[in-house]
Protein 1
Amino acid sequence: MIDRTKIYIGGEWVASTSEAVTEVFNPASGELVGRTPSGGADDVDRAVAAARAAFEGWAATPAAERIALLDKVRDGLRARNEEIADLISDEMGSPRSFARLSQVGLGVKNFDFAARAMEEIAAEGEEEIGPTLVIREPIGVVAAITPWNFPLHQISAKVAPALAAGCTVVLKASEVAPLSAFVLADLIEEAGFPAGVFNLVSGPGRTLGEHLVQHPDVDMVSFTGSTGAGRRIAQLAAPTLKKVALELGGKSANIVLDDADLAAVIPTAVKQCYANSGQACASLSRLLVPRAMLPEAERLATEAAGSWTVGSPADLSTKLGPLASESQQQSVLTYIKSGIDEGARLLIGGTTPPIETGAYVPATVFSDVTPEMTIAREEIFGPVLAIMPYDDEDDAIRIANAAEYGLSGGVWSADRDRAVAIARRMRTGQVVINGEPLNLRAPFGGYRQSGLGREYGRYGLEEFFEIKSLQGAQS
Ligand code: NAD
């Protein structure tokens, strides 16, 4: 059991002013795996004051020095990959094999790519527009608020570029999976960042999180989480007109065109929905197939879903672990029931957990899903694939764009140009063509209810700057 009794403020591990504690449970076994402080407004006030005090010095620190510190954190994460991945697996149920491959690896890349993007910006120098010099300045104190599904990845996608840009940070990680945030704070301390540049508070979103969002000395809120919480945060941030970047939910469509090789495509399409037990914002949870190909797609999807070995996340052969919590399990089972009740055809899976103890949900595939059904409209965040038949390309685009979300999408075709033409018509922030692996240097973010702003690489870094015009600086 990991007992983290202190929070990190102003370069020191200090006691929270609250004695309350957050308990973290392994969703496979119910075992207590960790404890963290559960603080409130006082902790936030102290952390924001420390970040504010550190801002001017950090913003003036040469980019090369900031980058060197980020590279130390990257190396520290890489060196402790397996240990941190196993910790994340214990706290939120991600299968160890997947966690070791992705959970920490993405964090390493975020630190690396933020540093490289900052190098690029520094090397380019400042822009001149006639007599005006246009300069970038770090936006100030950034509140980073993150969810549990890829805890370290989502933290690093904000913290690394914010620090690279010269901002100071107050991080509030998910109370469901907070432990990797504490390890990151250890690494930041070991790297030797100046006091107050990075601060970690810990506690519930509704109290501590809301105080942070409303704080007048916070200049920007960078949030990843549910669309509901994102809406609330945008409202709470409005009175102080601080910048808000929101990475929210999705209900992404994966369009299989009629020239695609189904036998090759469908197993990967199932993986694009089930990875991390379906708990991914960019999960491709709606599979759109030409009506004539439906029976073959159904057969292959059922076979592929059946091969997702369910088991303990600690077992390296497990592909489908438990969901992150019992409440997440109940929510997903309720969605599966709604699919059955609203007339979708269940091909595999259903409402009976495959393992009795733990937050397990069976690998589930529905067919004949129509756009008005709940399971076609709402983010499920579990291993539930909705197959939706379509008549022609226009119909596929209509179905894909019918969702309120617009975070990701996919297209499969033997003809790349045809796939790209379809991808251009999808109202979403990212489209994965023929199963291309995620490129963390390219921008990621949502249209419509999926959010505001972009993360990753150069675009993600640009979010943390204000732009200033020095009129007459060149004349
Ligand atoms: P959540 O919205 O419940 O919580 C996310 C974080 O926000 C947590 O730290 C929580 O404590 C905090 N929070 C909640 N309400 C708050 C409030 N009113 N004020 C301030 N902070 C508040 O989300 P979750 O259940 O942890 O994560 C799952 C959701 O995250 C899914 O909807 C998923 O799609 C989304 N997500 C989006 C992305 C993306 O990049 N677009 C990535 C991963 C997850």
Protein 2
Amino acid sequence: MYTGEIVDFTTLDKDIQELIRESAAVREKSYSPYSKFKVGAAVRCTDGSISRGCNVENASFPASVCAETAAIVHAVSEGKKKFTALTVVADQENVKFTTPCGVCRQVISEFFGDNIPIYLTRSDMKQVLRTKTSELFPFSPFHTSDTKTS
Ligand code: THU
């Protein structure tokens, strides 16, 4: 089940289109000899800059890094911790949109507000699923403001 809305790439703002194109471009750098599944992600920082990441796998599978986490970790390493959007590009068989894994949802929730838009698409960049942190990761530990006791 998807929560969010499916929109045409062409209807998106130019800065989001650019972010998606950057995700598709960095996806080509994916190091994924084990899964053969390439993923690219990009975040737009509040200063307007873009940070990109691809998945980087390891012979010891748990040591692999996902594209979304790579993009966020790189941005934070550059001193950027606030974002206005995240885009992810991957081509999964039989599944239209690849959504971030559970660990990445946790990482996203650390730095993204509840309403930061997240755009998921395939490398053909035709249809795009627009969602947000709170849809992907409700009841985020430590960051769920509406369950605060005071
Ligand atoms: N992967 C990502 O990088 N992001 C996702 O949203 C889904 C999964 C990577 C992890 C692993 O390298 C490969 O895709 C297969 O799961």
